[in-house]
Design brief:
Layout (H helix, E strand, L loop, with lengths): L1 H63 L4 E8 L3 E6 L3 E8 L2 E8 L4 E5 L4 E10 L2 E6 L1
Length: 138
Amino acid sequence: MRKKKRGQVSIEYMGLVGITSIIVLFLLIISNYYSRGIENSINTNQIDGIAKEIVDTAESMYYYGEPSKTTLRIYIPDKIQVINITTDQIILTVTTPSGTANLAYLSDVPLGGEVLSTEGFHDVEIEARGGLVWINGT
């Protein structure tokens, strides 16, 4: 009689550990899924903030007139592949979970220049110069 009780307790314990393990694994999978979504949202907001800050500062420098100049210290995340500055917009080519995307930020003033897209902190000089705003990021 005692051997049957020990065997029954052992099987019940294994069942309890198995169910608990499945629940924990399920919770880990769900938390990983949601953390990736939050990470993508943070990257998108960070990229959006960088571009808007550059455009807003460029417009301010243009309206202040020549020789207005300022320097922004910005962090370029690794998701940005290319930063193109055209005459009326800044175009960021970024890596997303679904591939690459081009994000364009329009400016009311003429722009020119170049900003490096390597990850890390960069000093971006924004200067009103000869009817346009020159943006130079090193």
